[in-house]
Design a protein that fits this description.
The structure is a homodimer.
Chain A (H helix, E strand, L loop, with lengths): L5 H20 L6 H8 L3 H7 L3 H24 L5 H13 L7 H16 L1 H28 L7 H21 L9 H15 L7 E2 L2 E2 L11
Antiparallel strand pairs in A: 1-2
Helix pairs in contact in A: 1-2, 1-4, 2-3, 4-5, 4-7, 5-7, 5-9, 6-7, 6-8, 7-8
Protein backbone atom coordinates (compact mmCIF):
# COMPACT_ATOMS: atom_id res chain seq x y z
CA UNK A 1 0.00 0.00 0.00
CA UNK A 2 1.47 3.36 -0.91
CA UNK A 3 2.18 5.73 1.96
CA UNK A 4 0.02 8.82 2.17
CA UNK A 5 2.06 11.55 0.52
CA UNK A 6 4.13 13.55 2.95
CA UNK A 7 2.53 16.73 1.62
CA UNK A 8 -0.90 15.60 2.83
CA UNK A 9 0.42 14.83 6.29
CA UNK A 10 2.16 18.19 6.56
CA UNK A 11 -0.87 20.08 5.31
CA UNK A 12 -3.06 18.27 7.84
CA UNK A 13 -0.63 19.13 10.65
CA UNK A 14 -0.85 22.79 9.65
CA UNK A 15 -4.66 22.80 9.44
CA UNK A 16 -4.80 21.17 12.88
CA UNK A 17 -2.35 23.80 14.09
CA UNK A 18 -4.62 26.60 12.83
CA UNK A 19 -7.59 25.02 14.63
CA UNK A 20 -5.63 24.84 17.90
CA UNK A 21 -4.45 28.44 17.42
CA UNK A 22 -7.99 29.72 16.77
CA UNK A 23 -9.16 27.81 19.85
CA UNK A 24 -6.44 29.38 21.98
CA UNK A 25 -6.34 32.94 20.73
CA UNK A 26 -8.66 33.49 17.75
CA UNK A 27 -7.98 33.93 14.05
CA UNK A 28 -6.82 37.54 14.25
CA UNK A 29 -3.98 36.62 16.59
CA UNK A 30 -3.05 33.49 14.62
CA UNK A 31 0.23 34.51 12.99
CA UNK A 32 2.06 32.08 10.72
CA UNK A 33 4.62 31.83 13.54
CA UNK A 34 1.88 30.85 16.02
CA UNK A 35 0.34 28.34 13.58
CA UNK A 36 3.76 26.83 12.90
CA UNK A 37 4.44 26.52 16.59
CA UNK A 38 1.05 24.86 17.21
CA UNK A 39 1.78 22.48 14.29
CA UNK A 40 5.24 21.56 15.56
CA UNK A 41 6.72 22.77 12.27
CA UNK A 42 9.05 25.54 11.14
CA UNK A 43 7.33 28.70 9.77
CA UNK A 44 9.08 28.10 6.44
CA UNK A 45 7.21 24.82 6.03
CA UNK A 46 3.87 26.55 6.61
CA UNK A 47 4.75 29.06 3.88
CA UNK A 48 5.81 26.20 1.62
CA UNK A 49 2.49 24.33 1.93
CA UNK A 50 0.05 27.27 2.02
CA UNK A 51 0.06 30.63 0.29
CA UNK A 52 -1.27 32.40 3.36
CA UNK A 53 -3.35 32.07 6.51
CA UNK A 54 -6.57 32.46 4.58
CA UNK A 55 -5.80 29.37 2.49
CA UNK A 56 -5.30 27.32 5.65
CA UNK A 57 -8.67 28.55 6.92
CA UNK A 58 -10.37 27.63 3.63
CA UNK A 59 -8.98 24.11 4.00
CA UNK A 60 -10.12 23.90 7.63
CA UNK A 61 -13.67 25.00 6.74
CA UNK A 62 -13.71 22.50 3.85
CA UNK A 63 -12.74 19.74 6.28
CA UNK A 64 -15.46 20.74 8.76
CA UNK A 65 -17.91 20.74 5.85
CA UNK A 66 -16.74 17.31 4.69
CA UNK A 67 -17.12 15.97 8.23
CA UNK A 68 -20.67 17.40 8.47
CA UNK A 69 -21.51 16.00 5.01
CA UNK A 70 -20.25 12.52 5.90
CA UNK A 71 -22.37 12.50 9.09
CA UNK A 72 -25.43 13.34 7.01
CA UNK A 73 -24.69 10.92 4.17
CA UNK A 74 -24.14 7.98 6.51
CA UNK A 75 -27.65 8.55 7.94
CA UNK A 76 -29.37 9.55 4.69
CA UNK A 77 -28.10 6.37 2.98
CA UNK A 78 -30.56 4.28 5.01
CA UNK A 79 -33.49 6.73 4.74
CA UNK A 80 -36.49 5.35 2.88
CA UNK A 81 -38.20 8.62 2.02
CA UNK A 82 -38.01 12.42 2.22
CA UNK A 83 -39.26 12.45 5.83
CA UNK A 84 -36.46 10.14 6.93
CA UNK A 85 -33.87 12.05 4.92
CA UNK A 86 -34.87 15.25 6.72
CA UNK A 87 -34.68 13.45 10.05
CA UNK A 88 -31.25 12.10 8.98
CA UNK A 89 -30.13 15.70 8.50
CA UNK A 90 -31.45 16.76 11.90
CA UNK A 91 -29.78 13.82 13.63
CA UNK A 92 -26.52 14.38 11.74
CA UNK A 93 -26.37 17.96 13.04
CA UNK A 94 -28.00 17.66 16.46
CA UNK A 95 -27.97 14.11 17.84
CA UNK A 96 -24.98 12.58 19.52
CA UNK A 97 -23.49 9.40 18.15
CA UNK A 98 -20.21 7.59 17.81
CA UNK A 99 -19.21 10.11 15.13
CA UNK A 100 -19.92 13.18 17.29
CA UNK A 101 -17.04 15.65 17.41
CA UNK A 102 -17.40 18.44 20.00
CA UNK A 103 -14.11 20.00 18.83
CA UNK A 104 -15.52 20.46 15.33
CA UNK A 105 -18.63 22.07 16.79
CA UNK A 106 -16.57 24.42 18.99
CA UNK A 107 -14.36 25.28 16.01
CA UNK A 108 -17.43 26.18 13.98
CA UNK A 109 -18.74 28.44 16.77
CA UNK A 110 -15.39 30.23 16.96
CA UNK A 111 -15.15 30.61 13.18
CA UNK A 112 -18.69 32.05 13.21
CA UNK A 113 -17.64 34.69 15.73
CA UNK A 114 -14.46 35.48 13.80
CA UNK A 115 -16.68 35.97 10.75
CA UNK A 116 -18.33 38.92 12.51
CA UNK A 117 -15.09 40.92 12.51
CA UNK A 118 -12.94 39.41 9.75
CA UNK A 119 -14.10 39.90 6.14
CA UNK A 120 -11.90 37.00 4.97
CA UNK A 121 -13.43 34.63 7.46
CA UNK A 122 -16.92 35.95 6.74
CA UNK A 123 -16.62 35.20 3.06
CA UNK A 124 -15.55 31.60 3.74
CA UNK A 125 -18.17 31.17 6.46
CA UNK A 126 -20.96 32.52 4.26
CA UNK A 127 -20.06 30.12 1.48
CA UNK A 128 -20.62 27.25 3.93
CA UNK A 129 -23.87 28.81 5.21
CA UNK A 130 -25.16 29.20 1.66
CA UNK A 131 -24.53 25.49 0.97
CA UNK A 132 -26.19 24.48 4.22
CA UNK A 133 -29.30 26.57 3.52
CA UNK A 134 -29.51 25.05 0.03
CA UNK A 135 -29.33 21.55 1.52
CA UNK A 136 -32.04 22.28 4.11
CA UNK A 137 -34.27 23.84 1.42
CA UNK A 138 -33.97 20.74 -0.78
CA UNK A 139 -34.80 18.41 2.12
CA UNK A 140 -37.76 20.49 3.34
CA UNK A 141 -39.13 20.92 -0.14
CA UNK A 142 -38.99 17.19 -0.82
CA UNK A 143 -40.79 16.46 2.45
CA UNK A 144 -43.52 19.03 1.79
CA UNK A 145 -44.09 17.54 -1.67
CA UNK A 146 -44.11 14.01 -0.22
CA UNK A 147 -46.86 15.12 2.19
CA UNK A 148 -48.85 16.76 -0.60
CA UNK A 149 -48.34 20.17 1.00
CA UNK A 150 -47.68 23.35 -0.89
CA UNK A 151 -44.14 24.67 -0.81
CA UNK A 152 -44.40 27.87 1.20
CA UNK A 153 -42.11 30.08 3.28
CA UNK A 154 -39.27 27.71 2.48
CA UNK A 155 -36.53 30.34 2.79
CA UNK A 156 -37.73 31.48 6.20
CA UNK A 157 -38.10 27.98 7.53
CA UNK A 158 -34.73 26.86 6.20
CA UNK A 159 -33.13 29.92 7.84
CA UNK A 160 -34.98 29.12 11.07
CA UNK A 161 -33.81 25.52 11.16
CA UNK A 162 -30.24 26.61 10.48
CA UNK A 163 -30.49 29.26 13.22
CA UNK A 164 -31.66 26.58 15.64
CA UNK A 165 -28.71 24.33 14.70
CA UNK A 166 -26.22 27.19 15.06
CA UNK A 167 -27.70 28.18 18.43
CA UNK A 168 -27.54 24.61 19.72
CA UNK A 169 -23.88 24.55 18.67
CA UNK A 170 -23.26 27.73 20.69
CA UNK A 171 -24.98 26.43 23.83
CA UNK A 172 -23.42 22.96 23.47
CA UNK A 173 -19.98 24.57 23.30
CA UNK A 174 -20.21 27.10 26.11
CA UNK A 175 -23.17 26.22 28.35
CA UNK A 176 -23.67 22.47 27.96
CA UNK A 177 -24.52 21.93 31.62
CA UNK A 178 -27.35 24.49 31.49
CA UNK A 179 -29.46 22.75 28.83
CA UNK A 180 -31.04 19.27 28.97
CA UNK A 181 -28.83 16.55 27.47
CA UNK A 182 -29.74 15.61 23.91
CA UNK A 183 -32.83 17.85 23.77
CA UNK A 184 -32.17 19.36 20.39
CA UNK A 185 -32.73 16.69 17.72
CA UNK A 186 -36.19 15.59 18.89
CA UNK A 187 -37.23 19.20 19.35
CA UNK A 188 -36.16 20.17 15.83
CA UNK A 189 -37.92 17.10 14.40
CA UNK A 190 -41.15 17.92 16.26
CA UNK A 191 -40.90 21.53 15.07
CA UNK A 192 -40.55 20.40 11.44
CA UNK A 193 -43.49 18.00 11.79
CA UNK A 194 -45.71 20.78 13.13
CA UNK A 195 -44.59 23.20 10.43
CA UNK A 196 -45.40 20.69 7.70
CA UNK A 197 -48.67 19.66 9.37
CA UNK A 198 -49.77 23.31 9.47
CA UNK A 199 -49.07 23.94 5.80
CA UNK A 200 -51.93 23.92 3.31
CA UNK A 201 -52.36 20.78 1.21
CA UNK A 202 -51.98 21.15 -2.52
CA UNK A 203 -55.53 21.35 -3.88
CA UNK A 204 -56.77 18.00 -5.11
CA UNK A 205 -53.80 16.06 -3.75
CA UNK A 206 -54.70 12.67 -2.31
CA UNK A 207 -53.71 12.49 1.38
CA UNK A 208 -54.32 9.30 3.37
CA UNK A 209 -56.54 7.87 0.69
CA UNK A 210 -59.02 10.72 0.23
CA UNK A 211 -59.04 13.98 -1.68
CA UNK A 212 -58.52 17.06 0.45
CA UNK A 213 -59.87 20.46 -0.38
CA UNK A 214 -58.01 23.70 -0.01
CA UNK A 215 -58.59 24.90 3.54
CA UNK A 216 -57.31 27.53 5.93
CA UNK A 217 -54.29 26.49 7.98
CA UNK A 218 -54.98 26.46 11.69
CA UNK A 219 -51.47 26.04 13.03
CA UNK A 220 -50.10 29.49 12.23
CA UNK A 221 -50.96 32.50 14.28
CA UNK A 222 -51.04 35.57 12.17
CA UNK B 1 -29.20 69.05 37.37
CA UNK B 2 -26.04 67.47 38.81
CA UNK B 3 -23.44 66.33 36.30
CA UNK B 4 -22.94 62.59 35.91
CA UNK B 5 -19.92 61.79 38.10
CA UNK B 6 -16.66 61.69 36.23
CA UNK B 7 -16.06 58.13 37.47
CA UNK B 8 -19.13 56.89 35.63
CA UNK B 9 -18.04 58.56 32.40
CA UNK B 10 -14.55 57.08 32.69
CA UNK B 11 -15.85 53.61 33.47
CA UNK B 12 -18.18 53.78 30.50
CA UNK B 13 -15.33 54.85 28.22
CA UNK B 14 -13.35 51.82 29.40
CA UNK B 15 -16.24 49.37 28.94
CA UNK B 16 -16.79 50.75 25.42
CA UNK B 17 -13.06 50.37 24.85
CA UNK B 18 -13.21 46.68 25.86
CA UNK B 19 -16.13 46.14 23.47
CA UNK B 20 -14.19 47.71 20.60
CA UNK B 21 -11.11 45.67 21.51
CA UNK B 22 -13.07 42.39 21.59
CA UNK B 23 -14.62 43.32 18.25
CA UNK B 24 -11.20 43.99 16.73
CA UNK B 25 -9.10 41.20 18.21
CA UNK B 26 -11.00 39.12 20.75
CA UNK B 27 -10.87 38.98 24.53
CA UNK B 28 -7.67 36.96 24.77
CA UNK B 29 -5.72 39.60 22.93
CA UNK B 30 -7.34 42.48 24.82
CA UNK B 31 -4.52 43.69 27.04
CA UNK B 32 -5.06 46.58 29.44
CA UNK B 33 -2.80 48.57 27.10
CA UNK B 34 -5.06 47.74 24.14
CA UNK B 35 -8.24 48.54 26.10
CA UNK B 36 -6.73 51.84 27.28
CA UNK B 37 -5.77 52.73 23.75
CA UNK B 38 -9.27 51.90 22.43
CA UNK B 39 -10.74 54.02 25.27
CA UNK B 40 -8.50 57.00 24.58
CA UNK B 41 -7.19 56.81 28.16
CA UNK B 42 -3.89 56.08 29.85
CA UNK B 43 -3.43 52.47 31.09
CA UNK B 44 -3.06 53.82 34.64
CA UNK B 45 -6.63 55.15 34.50
CA UNK B 46 -7.94 51.73 33.45
CA UNK B 47 -6.16 50.18 36.45
CA UNK B 48 -7.58 52.92 38.68
CA UNK B 49 -11.20 52.26 37.67
CA UNK B 50 -11.16 48.45 37.33
CA UNK B 51 -9.31 45.75 39.26
CA UNK B 52 -8.67 43.75 36.10
CA UNK B 53 -9.89 42.89 32.62
CA UNK B 54 -12.40 40.41 34.01
CA UNK B 55 -14.13 43.15 35.99
CA UNK B 56 -14.52 45.25 32.83
CA UNK B 57 -16.05 42.23 31.08
CA UNK B 58 -18.47 41.66 33.96
CA UNK B 59 -19.61 45.27 33.61
CA UNK B 60 -19.97 44.92 29.83
CA UNK B 61 -22.10 41.77 30.15
CA UNK B 62 -24.22 43.49 32.83
CA UNK B 63 -24.81 46.38 30.44
CA UNK B 64 -25.78 44.05 27.59
CA UNK B 65 -28.13 42.30 30.02
CA UNK B 66 -29.64 45.61 31.12
CA UNK B 67 -30.16 46.62 27.49
CA UNK B 68 -31.88 43.29 26.74
CA UNK B 69 -34.01 43.59 29.89
CA UNK B 70 -35.13 47.12 29.01
CA UNK B 71 -36.16 46.01 25.51
CA UNK B 72 -38.30 43.28 27.05
CA UNK B 73 -39.79 45.43 29.80
CA UNK B 74 -40.83 48.19 27.42
CA UNK B 75 -42.85 45.62 25.43
CA UNK B 76 -44.09 43.56 28.40
CA UNK B 77 -45.46 46.69 30.08
CA UNK B 78 -48.28 46.88 27.53
CA UNK B 79 -48.97 43.12 27.43
CA UNK B 80 -52.46 42.16 28.65
CA UNK B 81 -51.81 38.49 29.41
CA UNK B 82 -49.21 35.70 29.48
CA UNK B 83 -49.50 35.11 25.73
CA UNK B 84 -48.67 38.75 24.98
CA UNK B 85 -45.84 38.79 27.54
CA UNK B 86 -44.25 35.80 25.80
CA UNK B 87 -44.67 37.53 22.44
CA UNK B 88 -43.13 40.66 24.02
CA UNK B 89 -40.08 38.58 24.93
CA UNK B 90 -39.80 37.14 21.42
CA UNK B 91 -40.11 40.58 19.83
CA UNK B 92 -37.63 42.08 22.29
CA UNK B 93 -35.03 39.51 21.27
CA UNK B 94 -35.83 38.93 17.61
CA UNK B 95 -37.80 41.77 16.04
CA UNK B 96 -36.20 44.95 14.80
CA UNK B 97 -37.33 48.26 16.21
CA UNK B 98 -36.08 51.71 17.00
CA UNK B 99 -34.20 50.23 19.98
CA UNK B 100 -32.41 47.56 17.93
CA UNK B 101 -28.67 47.49 18.47
CA UNK B 102 -26.71 45.29 16.05
CA UNK B 103 -23.46 46.10 17.88
CA UNK B 104 -24.84 44.64 21.11
CA UNK B 105 -25.91 41.51 19.23
CA UNK B 106 -22.49 41.15 17.59
CA UNK B 107 -20.80 41.70 20.96
CA UNK B 108 -22.90 38.93 22.47
CA UNK B 109 -21.95 36.54 19.65
CA UNK B 110 -18.27 37.29 20.17
CA UNK B 111 -18.51 36.91 23.94
CA UNK B 112 -20.26 33.56 23.39
CA UNK B 113 -17.36 32.35 21.26
CA UNK B 114 -14.80 33.64 23.76
CA UNK B 115 -16.69 31.65 26.41
CA UNK B 116 -15.76 28.44 24.57
CA UNK B 117 -12.06 28.97 25.27
CA UNK B 118 -11.87 31.33 28.26
CA UNK B 119 -13.06 29.97 31.63
CA UNK B 120 -13.45 33.53 32.99
CA UNK B 121 -15.68 34.54 30.11
CA UNK B 122 -17.59 31.27 30.28
CA UNK B 123 -18.50 31.81 33.93
CA UNK B 124 -19.86 35.29 33.21
CA UNK B 125 -21.62 34.15 30.04
CA UNK B 126 -23.25 31.19 31.80
CA UNK B 127 -24.60 33.44 34.53
CA UNK B 128 -26.41 35.45 31.86
CA UNK B 129 -27.64 32.26 30.11
CA UNK B 130 -28.98 30.91 33.40
CA UNK B 131 -31.00 34.11 33.95
CA UNK B 132 -32.31 34.05 30.39
CA UNK B 133 -33.46 30.41 30.65
CA UNK B 134 -35.20 31.21 33.96
CA UNK B 135 -37.03 34.13 32.30
CA UNK B 136 -38.13 32.01 29.31
CA UNK B 137 -39.29 29.22 31.65
CA UNK B 138 -41.44 31.66 33.67
CA UNK B 139 -43.01 33.12 30.53
CA UNK B 140 -43.71 29.72 28.92
CA UNK B 141 -45.08 28.29 32.14
CA UNK B 142 -47.47 31.21 32.60
CA UNK B 143 -48.69 30.85 29.01
CA UNK B 144 -49.24 27.08 29.33
CA UNK B 145 -51.24 27.64 32.52
CA UNK B 146 -53.23 30.44 30.88
CA UNK B 147 -54.15 28.00 28.08
CA UNK B 148 -55.12 25.30 30.55
CA UNK B 149 -52.29 23.11 29.31
CA UNK B 150 -50.11 20.93 31.49
CA UNK B 151 -46.58 22.17 32.12
CA UNK B 152 -44.41 19.66 30.31
CA UNK B 153 -40.89 19.54 28.84
CA UNK B 154 -40.41 23.13 29.97
CA UNK B 155 -36.62 22.86 30.33
CA UNK B 156 -36.19 21.45 26.85
CA UNK B 157 -38.47 24.00 25.25
CA UNK B 158 -36.87 26.92 27.08
CA UNK B 159 -33.44 25.68 25.95
CA UNK B 160 -34.76 25.33 22.41
CA UNK B 161 -36.15 28.85 22.29
CA UNK B 162 -32.89 30.24 23.67
CA UNK B 163 -30.92 28.21 21.10
CA UNK B 164 -33.06 29.69 18.34
CA UNK B 165 -32.44 33.23 19.64
CA UNK B 166 -28.69 32.63 19.91
CA UNK B 167 -28.58 31.15 16.42
CA UNK B 168 -30.48 34.08 14.95
CA UNK B 169 -27.95 36.39 16.62
CA UNK B 170 -25.11 34.47 14.95
CA UNK B 171 -26.69 34.58 11.48
CA UNK B 172 -27.77 38.22 11.89
CA UNK B 173 -24.18 39.13 12.75
CA UNK B 174 -22.27 37.22 10.13
CA UNK B 175 -24.64 36.15 7.35
CA UNK B 176 -27.46 38.72 7.37
CA UNK B 177 -27.78 38.83 3.60
CA UNK B 178 -28.32 35.04 3.41
CA UNK B 179 -31.48 34.88 5.52
CA UNK B 180 -34.86 36.57 4.89
CA UNK B 181 -35.19 39.97 6.58
CA UNK B 182 -37.08 39.88 9.86
CA UNK B 183 -38.02 36.19 9.56
CA UNK B 184 -37.18 35.23 13.12
CA UNK B 185 -39.78 36.75 15.47
CA UNK B 186 -42.87 35.49 13.64
CA UNK B 187 -41.29 32.08 13.21
CA UNK B 188 -40.49 31.79 16.93
CA UNK B 189 -44.00 32.95 17.83
CA UNK B 190 -45.59 30.37 15.49
CA UNK B 191 -43.32 27.68 16.92
CA UNK B 192 -44.41 28.54 20.47
CA UNK B 193 -48.09 28.54 19.46
CA UNK B 194 -47.76 25.08 17.92
CA UNK B 195 -45.85 23.75 20.91
CA UNK B 196 -48.54 25.00 23.31
CA UNK B 197 -51.37 23.82 21.01
CA UNK B 198 -49.86 20.32 20.94
CA UNK B 199 -49.57 20.03 24.72
CA UNK B 200 -52.18 18.07 26.64
CA UNK B 201 -54.87 20.09 28.40
CA UNK B 202 -55.04 19.81 32.17
CA UNK B 203 -57.87 17.32 32.85
CA UNK B 204 -61.17 19.04 33.50
CA UNK B 205 -59.91 22.50 32.58
CA UNK B 206 -62.41 24.67 30.75
CA UNK B 207 -61.06 25.72 27.36
CA UNK B 208 -63.08 27.96 25.03
CA UNK B 209 -66.23 27.48 27.07
CA UNK B 210 -66.39 23.68 27.22
CA UNK B 211 -64.75 21.03 29.33
CA UNK B 212 -62.00 19.12 27.58
CA UNK B 213 -61.08 15.56 28.37
CA UNK B 214 -57.55 14.23 28.57
CA UNK B 215 -56.60 13.21 25.08
CA UNK B 216 -53.56 12.15 23.14
CA UNK B 217 -51.58 15.01 21.64
CA UNK B 218 -51.46 14.88 17.87
CA UNK B 219 -48.91 17.56 17.12
CA UNK B 220 -45.79 16.05 18.66
CA UNK B 221 -44.05 13.09 17.20
CA UNK B 222 -42.54 11.21 20.13
Amino acid sequence: MPRKPNTELRRQQIVDGLLRTIAAQGYTGATIQAIASASGLAPGLVHYHFRDKREILVTLVEQLGAYAASRFQARAAVAANARERLRAYIDARLAYGSDANPDAVAAWVMIGAEAVREPDVREIYQRAVRQEIALIRRLLRAYLLECGKRVHKLDAFAAGLLAFVEGVFVLASNARTLVPTGFAADMAAAWVERYVAAELPVAGHAVAGKKTVRQKSKGGQR
